[in-house]
Design a protein that fits this description.
The protein contains three helices and two strands. It has helices spanning about 5-25, 40-65, 75-95, and strands spanning about 35, 105. It has a two-stranded antiparallel sheet with strand order 1-2. Helix 1 packs parallel to helix 3 (about 75-95) and helix 2 runs antiparallel to helix 3. The chain is elongated, with a radius of gyration of 17 Å.
Length: about 110
């Protein structure tokens, strides 16, 4: 059986990877490589900070909103991480609507 810290770390990395893949699929592949923009770097930095904050506050919030559930910190963290995934979908949409792409395609040079 995995320790709670291992489960939280795996969930953290899984959510980070899923946000990366979901965001990246919204940009055309083109002929060049996709690069992270400044807005994209800030987007992912904000995601990481949100997830790190959830590691510490997620269990307490889960206990406050789910009083009948046994106090398992892993459950609260996992719920927070999933909420982060769904929260960053509209954040990405707002960035695109404002003309701030997360990725840009560079032209291939031969």
């Amino acid at each position: 059986m995995f320790s709670p810290l291992t489960i939280s770390a795996i969930t953290f990395l899984f959510i980070l990877g899923m946000v990366y893949l979901r965001t990246r699929m919204h940009y055309p592949k083109g002929t060049g490589a996709r690069q992270l923009t400044r807005a994209g770097a800030l987007y992912f930095a904000a995601l990481v900070l949100f997830l790190v904050a959830g590691y510490f506050v997620g269990p307490g919030i889960a206990r406050a909103f789910l009083p009948g559930v046994p106090p398992a910190p892993t459950l609260g963290r996992t719920i927070w991480f999933l909420a982060g995934y769904y929260l960053f979908i509209p954040v990405h949409g707002m960035l695109k609507a404002r003309g701030l792409p997360v990725f840009r395609t560079t032209s291939a040079e031969h």
